[in-house]
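Write out a record, fold above all:
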Amino acid sequence: MAFEGIFVQPIRDEIKRIGFEELTTPEQVDETLGQNKGTLLVFVNSVCGCASGRARPALGMSLEHDVKPERTVTVFAGQDKAATAQVRSYFTDYMPSSPSIGLMRDDKLVFFLERHQIEGRNPEAIAADLVRAYDQFCTQPTAA
């Protein structure tokens, strides 16, 4: 295993264990984000400490909530560069940052956490932000 793989593979495995599907090509990104109906959580992963000590644990905690996105996907910044750039093209109102977490509903970004909203905070606080977003956007609208 290459030196880089020794460090990166456990990070990839960790996020897949909590249910995230990896997108490694721009085509996979477009097939997933560009044609999504329903709710989709997108995690821009990285090797940094705030991803490992804050974002990934927060994601795991948040997905224990009863209400959650229908699908969860991830790209790996610095590793799958073309896929990451393609994901970021869907987040046009935000500067590129990693880690970052976006919630989409029917092809539209409805909630986003940038790196500065992740670093320096504990995983429980980040998970609480995500749960509030799930409660707001991951439930079906009721008929009036």
User: Anything to note?
Assistant: The longest helix spans residues 3-17. The helical segments are 3-17, 26-33, 49-62, 81-88, 123-137.
